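Hi V.,

Quick status before I head out on leave. The structure for the redesign project is tokenized and pasted below; the design run finished overnight.
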């Protein structure tokens, strides 16, 4: 399941990178043909990158919520909970001796 989540995130990052490259290339073409100024092009690209980062964070948050929901429905134990229990058992066993 963790591999699937990583693949989804990496795919999203790849799509974002590809989109950013395409926007940058389009803006460069517009600047080269004097249809927009370099500063206007920079604003466009910066705005796109900022918007993309915001969407990426939103996507990650939603994905985490979905995974949490699935894990809760499956009634699985989290690794951190298991580690806590192991530590408590070890402590109790040590106190017992």
């Amino acid at each position: 399941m963790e591999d699937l989540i990583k693949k989804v995130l990496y795919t999203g990052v790849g799509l974002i990178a590809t989109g950013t490259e395409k926007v940058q290339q389009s803006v460069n073409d517009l600047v080269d043909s004097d249809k927009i100024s370099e500063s206007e092009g920079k604003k466009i690209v910066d705005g796109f990158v900022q918007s993309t980062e915001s969407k990426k964070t939103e996507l990650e948050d939603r994905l985490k919520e979905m995974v949490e929901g699935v894990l809760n429905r499956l009634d699985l134990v989290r690794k951190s909970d298991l580690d806590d229990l192991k530590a408590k058992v070890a402590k109790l066993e040590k106190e017992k001796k």
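Above is the designed sequence. The mean pLDDT is 84.

G. will cover questions while I'm gone.

Best,
W.
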